[in-house]
Amino acid sequence: MTLQEIGKKILVVGGYGNVGRIICTKLSQEFPGAVIAAGPDLAKAELLAYETSDAVIPRQLDVFNRNQIRDALEDVGLVIMCLDQTDTNFVEDCIRRGIHYIDITASYEFLSRVEDLHEKAKEDGATVILSVGLAPGVTNLLASHAKTEFDTLEAVDIFVLLGLGEAHGKAAIRWSLEKMNAEYTVLEDGKIKAAHGFGQRKKTTFPEGIGTRWAYSFDFSDQHVLPQTLGVRSAATWLTFDSALMTTFYAWLKQLGGFRLLDIEFVKDLFVRILGRVQVGSDQYVLQVDANGEVNGEPRASREALTGRNEGIGTALVAAQVAECLFTATYPGGVFHIEQLFEPLDFIRQLQNADSSIHFVEERE
């Protein structure tokens, strides 16, 4: 039987945040009375319940408070995590209870630790789905679809264009700033190579009249996952902004060593406050995968892109769509990334049905 059929509920941790409230609102329209907005601030959860005419249930939950977890999960069959975590204790609590789990984080440091719980999740019948969102998430699906066009898929370059005209939460801004100064590794021709946030650049051509742009190395988790799930020998993710001026500014700041100042906490806090108030550009986003491989022994290239408006809404729609599937159907136990359980084009078509701003573009060489 499905979670819906046995009367279980969906608990959204961080359910009153920028993305969480959209997830709650969307799911409560489909499953009124079955969606819980959870977080440490009960008043904010209650406000969302009021705004949705009580279609959303408010619940107080601090996932770092062990005393609150047992009661909070009593009637829950599915958890959607919208907050960053420092350990896997809460995920393990869910798995132990056979509760399905979705995480929208883009941090591979955390996701890799959840991957290690695969056998435990399989044993306890809990389906854990990672890489749920735009990048990672849709980017994984685009790469998965690209693989079907080749006999052998060798390399994927993932390009993420984000609009700076959209309001973002403090946690998202802080995470982005930290990644701009991050050191990490990528796989290139089967070999591990050092990379730095905004330390390398690559050029591509975006659809929708955007044209050719430089994009810069950035530590999204998809580039770490795809060599495992798709078997590619090279994978890298590149970030740019709709404002070419701001992209150039960040690249210039990196070259001058300005990002090192972000290691100072009060400087980082200052940047978070400034970027939270200043919005330059549009709310457009583009997710694009440039793939290279072989067909009949000959080199081939392809380009898959998805465009849309409002990154927060896009992320929420992906999470809500995955949640609806887990709530109304049965899936195997274990830890999976989104591309391991969902057919890319079917998933993208459903996103387009939910949001008319989303367009899918394919090119072949």
Question: What are the SSEs and their pairings?
Answer:
Layout: E1 9-13, H1 20-30, E2 35-39, H2 42-51, E3 56-60, H3 66-72, E4 76-81, H4 89-96, E5 100-103, H5 108-115, H6 118-124, E6 127-130, H7 134-147, E7 152-162, H8 170-180, E8 183-188, E9 191-196, E10 201-206, E11 211-217, H9 222-229, E12 234-241, H10 244-255, H11 265-277, E13 284-295, E14 298-309, H12 311-328, E15 334-337, H13 344-354, E16 359-364
Helix pairs in contact: 1-12, 7-13, 8-11, 12-13
What do you see in this structure?
With 365 residues, this protein is of the alpha/beta class. It folds into two domains: 9-133 and 312-355, 3-Layer(aba) Sandwich (Rossmann fold); 134-310, 2-Layer Sandwich (Dihydrodipicolinate Reductase, domain 2). The chain has 13 helices and 16 strands. Helix 8 crosses helix 11 and helix 12 (311-328) crosses helix 13 (344-354).
